[in-house]
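Action item from last week, closing it out:
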Amino acid sequence: MEERNESRGRAGRNVFLLGIVSFLNDMSSEIILPILPFFLRGFGAGYTGIGIVGGILDGFGNLVKVVSGYISDRVGNRKHIVFSGYLLSQISKLALSFSNSTALAGLFVTLDRVGKGIRTSPRDALLAESGMKSGKAFGFHRMMDTLGAVLGTSLALYLVYSGVNYSSAILFAAVIGFFAVVPLVFVRETAVPVKRPEVSFRLKKFAVFSFFVGLANISYMFFMLRAESLGVEEAIGLYLLFNVVYALCSYPFGVFAERVGKTRSLSLGYLFMTAASLSMFAGESLPLLLAGFLLYGLYMSVVEAQQRALASDLSVSYGFGMGTYHFVFGVSTIVGNTIAGMIADISLNLVFAYSAILSFTAAVLYATIKF
């Protein structure tokens, strides 16, 4: 019995510590994210420009993840790579607060995403190697991540309501972010050097599939810009609702996915996104926007964690496998959000029609395809 309890403790140690890291990092990031589209608008950025930045936010870091994942497998060191990625992100946030143009802001957002790309695959490998079931481990991590996002969004709302300018709010967020690297000191290394990291055929099949479903993953910025008609503070309040739902449902959906299967739970997730997009498409009234942000939170609580969990289940070499998944999904996200930005320049409403069609297609595919 003592050995079993000790084993459970070891399994949970890294999951808990990495959860704390993500809690603090996302508290920092989510002060910035809800005000970022309005920060960019202050420089005169149009919908296409915002869509490109949104694509970079959601997808650019994924292009780096395959490299960092491969290296972490090859050298057998995940912890220090994760540390360097988090540190780069905090430095980039600090620089972002001093930006004075869309181009400069886009550069520092890109560097922040590079930092995310460096850390994510080896961090996901640490979670996959923790000894805890993948659905629960990734669900718990996503819950902690999003609890930090709830607090960060609440602080963003308070700062905007108090009249703090966007640059000062971003600077405040950057200072908080530097505390996120401290718990990494206590994380235990799990990697063993692999001479030739591999990607399984099943993971290759899933990665190709992920490209098509990733096109439906439109940025939260389009939801924020849709809600702007109510006012900036109201839009941030709706974003807070999204994060509360995201935080509360991530771990329960992780447990649910272990019981019913990850592909079934992911099919449900994309149905949530279909309903969210249709709600945003239907109009700008408060009830429709509330429903849209709530459903968007349900979608993210399922898809963000469980696609990673499924990729880890299909991986032979965890770092390289997770990196391959992230790379393909990231390219897809950049392409999808760039298309969405171009559509928004014609009509913001049409972005949600585009998302609804792709999300429903993804739901059907997840319900029928086996990996």
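Closing note: The first helix runs from residue 2 to 32.
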